[in-house]
Write the structure tokens for this entry.
Amino acid sequence: TLLIIDNVSILLCLGFSHRDINMFVQKLRNHTKSLEGLFVCCASSDAFSTEHANYLSRISDLGLSVDDLSTGKSRDVSGHLTVNQRKEDGNQNVTGYHFRIEDRSVKIFPPGTSSAVL
């Protein structure tokens, strides 16, 4: 079973509170886990509060965060991707990557290995 919610933050525009959305996400997550399925929840950080984003991070097994470069625009690097994976023992493994958006694809590479550096 695979359940994907593309933009859970749209529920805020429909009048649901952060608490309602948290409960909804938690129930969907628990239900898909009971079916041995996978639950994917996407949210826009622009619409969500830091508190709600932290809640989603705490309950997730895998988190992806896409950000602009902190150093500004670059011709060779479009942004920074952070992958946060929770291990079975509860610890987290955080890995950072750079990415470049091209015509019909996205290239992902470790920081410092873009074509401009090499």
